[in-house]
Structures are given as C-alpha cells and as structure tokens.
Design brief:
Strands 3-2-1-4-5-6-7 form a 7-stranded parallel beta sheet, sandwiched between helices. By secondary structure, the protein is of the alpha/beta class. Helix 1 (17-27) packs across helix 8 (214-224) and helix 4 (101-128) packs parallel to helix 5. It has helices at residues 17-27, 55-60, 62-75, 101-128, 149-169, 186-191, 196-205, 214-224, and strands at residues 7-11, 31-37, 48-52, 83-86, 132-136, 174-180, 236-239. The longest helix has 28 residues, at 101-128.
Length: 251
C-alpha cells in the first residue's frame, strides 16, 4: 500500500513547555498534528487539532483506550498516523520512605505504561505509513539524584522499553528516545524564580554553558521522525549539553 502524502503526528503532553514546542515544530514542517493533554487547551495552532485525554485511563481502561484510538483515527480522514511522540510525563518527587502507592503507580502509568499502550494502539496505522515513535525520556534514565526514585525509575524503564520494542518490532516501525537534561521550560523557570545565582550555576555546570531550549528537543524529535534518520532505530539519544559526562565530586 502506498503511504499517504499527508502526514499526521500525535503528540502527548502538548500543553507543557516541550509539548508546545513539539506541536509548533511538527505543524510548521509538513505535519498535521493531533495535540493531546489532560489539561484544557488555551491556544491552538494552524494544522493542529487539540484533544483532551487521560493517559492513566488509556493504561487502565481498555474500552476508553479503544474509543480514543477510533476517535483519533477518524480525525485523520483514514490516513492514520505517521508519527507518535510520547512526551507526556509526571514528575512526582519523594524518597523511598515517603512515596505513596498512588504516587508510584501514577508515575509508572503515565511515564511508562502510556507510551507502551499508545504505541500498541496505533501500531497498525504507524506500520502502514512507515512511521516512527519518539519517546521523550530523560537524563534521569541513567543519572539521578535523591528524591527522584519514582521519576528516574520510570524514565529508565522508558529508555529500556524503547530499546526492547525496537528489537521486538523489527522493521515494522522505527522507535527511538531522547534523553534531555535541563530544559528551559516555564515550569523550570518558575521553580527557580528568585534564585538567579542557582540558575547561573545550573547553566555553568553544563559543559556547553547553558541549558536546552524546548525547540532543540522538538527539532531532534522531528529529525527522528524524518527519512533523514532512516537507520536510527532503538536509540536513546542524549541531549544534555555534555552534563551526562560530568563527575560530581567535592572538587
């Protein structure tokens, strides 16, 4: 079957800092975009359809998931998806002693379960269109710090899932992950408001002397969904400005 010339991308977590950049980047580079998030949409973009979705229900409620899939595919006018970007994530902080069962399960459902079941739901249409999946993982998949045990474990699992799904699916589709370090989102900036020196120190600790922009992550995701990356499969690509190679010690 000849693949459609009209390309549709589904992006989760579209209301976040990276999510908004992903939506703009794909919509401005030849894709029609289905932007999904659990929260209300306050803005819309050309070539974009906004859709509110609860990813925990996608994981735990098969009937809800199938209805969601059918509604999404109906929006694509029978063309289906060419790209799926699993960007949505929840970052619940807490120690091993203090994390609740609900916090742990929510972290796993949103950060690992949803990317798996979203890929499974749309696998047939992605395969038909020779499509790609990009999972937005994190530097925390490999390097973390205290109180990130739920988030870091979920991202480690997401990167492992990416590698394993590539092996399991063979050449049906391509699937890759991006592991960013700090990204200059509204959430990050709000967290350091009034702490300018701490922000400068964070930038200086990156060998490249700054943190990433959401647009840089989005452009990498777009590349991984393009024919120019046709031999990249099962890769977990760091986008860390070199900080993943830094040894943190008293020196």
């Amino acid at each position: 079957m000849q693949k459609s010339k009209v390309k549709w991308a589904l992006i989760t977590g579209a209301n976040g800092g990276i999510g908004k950049a992903l939506v703009r980047c794909f919509a401005e580079n030849g894709f029609k975009v289905i932007a999904t998030d659990i929260t209300d949409f306050e803005e819309s973009h050309p070539n974009t359809v906004n859709y509110q979705i609860d990813l925990e229900r996608v994981v735990n409620d098969e009937e809800y998931a199938i209805a969601f899939k059918d509604q999404i595919l109906s929006r694509t006018e029978g063309r289906g998806l060419t790209a799926l970007v699993n960007n949505a994530a929840i970052q619940i902080l807490g120690s091993v002693k203090n994390l609740t069962r609900t916090e742990w399960l929510t972290s796993m459902n949103v950060n690992v379960g949803a990317p798996f079941f979203m890929t499974q739901l749309f696998l047939e249409t992605l395969e038909r269109n020779e499509g790609s999946v990009v999972n937005i993982s994190s530097i925390h998949a490999l390097q973390t710090k205290r109180n990130f045990v739920a988030y870091a474990t979920s991202k480690g699992a997401l990167s492992s899932l990416t590698r394993n799904m590539a092996v399991d699916l063979g050449n049906a589709i391509r699937i890759n992950a991006i592991e960013p370090a700090a990204v200059s989102t509204d959430m990050l900036r709000a967290g350091i408001e009034g702490k300018e020196e701490q922000y400068k120190l964070l930038e200086a600790f990156h060998p490249i002397a700054r943190i990433a922009t959401p647009e840089e992550v989005a452009k990498l995701a777009l590349f991984l969904c393009s024919e120019e990356s046709s031999f990249i499969h099962g890769a977990c690509i760091n986008a860390t400005g070199g900080i993943h190679g830094c040894l943190s010690d008293p020196d």
